[in-house]
Design brief:
Length: 57
């Protein structure tokens, strides 16, 4: 294998790694945002809902 082919393979590998890291970063940011939205939604729920149970028949 000549030097040019090795150089091209290394360049393509580097580009693929950079793209993969960017996609993972975007996915991590989205998961973080969804988690924050879930916490906000749960904290805004009615706190007294479900505390009283009517057990009379």
């Amino acid at each position: 294998m000549d030097i040019a082919a090795v150089s091209m393979a290394m360049s393509q590998n580097s580009l693929a790694m950079a793209a993969s890291l960017r996609v993972m970063s975007i996915a991590k940011d989205q998961a973080n945002q969804q988690g924050q939205n879930l916490v906000q939604m749960l904290s805004s729920a009615q706190p007294n809902l479900g505390k009283n149970i009517d057990i009379r028949v």
